Amino acid sequence: MIFRSxxxxxxxxxxxxxxxxxxxxxxxxxxxxxEPVPCPxxxxxxxxxxxxxxxxPCPxxxxxPIPPIPPCPPPLVNVSCPEVSCPEIPCxxxxxxxxxxxxxxxxxxxxxxxxxxxxxxxxEEPGLGIYKVYRIRTSWPAANETCSVDGGYLAVxxxxxxxxxxxxxxxxxxxxxxFHIGIVRSGFxxxxxxxxxxxxxxxxxxxxxxxxxxxxxxxxxxxxxxSHAAIAAExxxxxxxxxxxxxxx
Length: 249
Ligand SMILES: *[C@@H]1O[C@H](CO)[C@@H](O)[C@H](O)[C@H]1NC(C)=O
Ligand SMILES: *[C@@H]1O[C@H](CO)[C@@H](O)[C@H](O)[C@H]1NC(C)=O
Description:
Blueprint: H1 2-23, E1 123-125, E2 129-138, H2 140-149, E3 152-154, H3 160-172, E4 178-184, E5 193-194, E6 221-225, E7 230-234, E8 240-246
Antiparallel strand pairs: 1-2, 2-8, 3-8, 4-5, 4-6, 6-7
Residues 141, 144-145, 148, 184, 195 line the site of one 2-acetamido-2-deoxy-beta-D-glucopyranose.
């Protein structure tokens, strides 16, 4: 070993000298020499490398047993499945319900009379009648005519309730004397009747104030006197307000 190291050391030394000689010229120049003398080239020995030991062979690895590969699934095939139609099972149907016996026909109701619209200004007083108060003073014949045009007649108060109703209107309308009344006679000595042709007895009218007949010549028309709260005779040309009454249908 010592010998080998010495050899190596010598080789390194020689190699170093050889390197410096190759890179430069010797600087020892004599004045007589035209050229510098080239440096001597060293003779390097071929180094003998030590033989490296051969590595031991690698041990064969002991691998665990490889598990068996499961078989591959069958490749997917573009298979079109046939359509399976399910058989239709009919549902059991319910037994028919027993039908109720036919209803007896309803009795035909009498058709209600059409409620006619009241003419302008007319109002129904429940239990008494349908009336319109005319506050404008006119003669008895003109009042009779107006009521006729309205489709009615000059009102006749043939009950205490109706008379009180009319007297109330005289008060509420602040009418001083009274209303023309649908009771008239065709002349002195003739009987007074209603404009509907009824006798006063059948119409149950006590028209004479204080139970005394007071219908002189020329007083062939009548009015309901506010101050006397009774029916009295008047001249047909006298002007008074009046009440028209509609006949019930
Ligand atoms: C599968 O079938 C359908 C319809 O026939 C077709 O459009 C499709 O390209 C097919 N696929 C393959 C991978 O063959
Ligand atoms: C009252 O009017 C009716 C209808 O227009 C008419 O028939 C009747 O003669 C009149 N009565 C009087 C006394 O004018």
